[in-house]
Amino acid sequence: MATSTVHEPPSKEYDEPITVVEKGWKNIHLTQYQGHWMSPQYIPAVMAFREHFESLSDDIILTTQPKSGTTWLKALTFTVTNRNLHDFDNHPLLKTNPHDLVPFLDIELYANGHIPDLTNLPSPHLFASHLPYNLLPTSMIKSDCRIIYLCRNPKDTFVSMWKFNNKFLPEDAPIPIQEAFELFYKGITPGGPFWEHVLGHWKASFERPERVLFIKYEELKEDPTFHLRRLAEFLGCPFSLEEERRGIIEKIQRLCSFENLTSLDVNKSGNTRIGIKTENYFRRGVVGDWVNHLTAEMIERLDQLTLQKFGCFDLVFKE
Question: Which residues contact 295 (CB under 8 A, 6 or more apart)?
Fold first, then answer.
C-alpha cells in the first residue's frame, strides 16, 4: 500500500466557490464542483488528486460511475494484468476484496489530507476513480496511461444505486424509490449527472482510442471472452495461443464471476479499507433488473432523457 504525507491545501488553480448544495440520497448532501455532484467531504481530496497526481506512461486507470460494475472491472483487470504472477488456486482475489487490490485515487489514496507516495508500488500501477473524464488530472490526460471506462444502462445503474444507498446507511430510513428517481433524473448523484459522465468518456474513446477503452456492462456480460481479449490487447498484454489453449480466459472468467466472488468469505463479512461492508458491493449482477422496480412512467422518462442526451452520439444500451 502507498505511504503518504499530509498535504497543504490545494492551490487556487483548482479552488472555486462551492455554493450549490442539494440534499442527496438519505442524509448525504451533495454539492456541485465544476459541473458535477459529489459529497463535500471528498472535494478536498479531489482537488489534491488533480493537483498532485503525476501519471506514469504505464499507469492503468479504471473509471466508472458508482454501481456500474466497478467491483467486477477491478477483479477482471487485476487478474488479467497479474496473470503471470499468481496461481488461480491461491489467488489474491480468494482472500481480498477487489476494492482493496485496486484502490480509489480520489476517495481513498488522496483522502483525509494526504498525498500518497506511489513510487514504491509495483509497476504498472493499477488505480480506480469515480471522477468524470473532464475532472481527471491533466497529467493523466496528457500521459500515455491507459484509461478503461465501464458504464451501464441508466435504468440498472439507478436501481443498483438506490439499493446500495439503502444498505449503506442502514440506521437511516430507506429512501423511497420515487424520491431517489427524481434525484437521479435531475443528475444529482455522486459524480453525476449520469449522462455527462458517460459522454465524457465516450467522446474520449473516439478522440484517443489507443488510450481510452469504453466498455458497456451489458456487452461484457453477454460476451466476456471477447471483451477480455479486447481488454488484454488494449493493455498491451494479449493472450497468447498457448494461454488460450490452456483455458486462461475461461479461468479468469470463473475466478471473477459474480457467483464465485459472492461465495468467498472475504466478500461475505468484514469491511474494505474505506469502511464499507464487502457484502454491500454484491447484489445481483444481472442485466435488466430495473423491470422489477421501475414504474412505466419512470421507464418512459428515463428512456426519453437518455435518447435526448445520447441519440446524436450513436450511444445505445442493450436491455
Answer: none
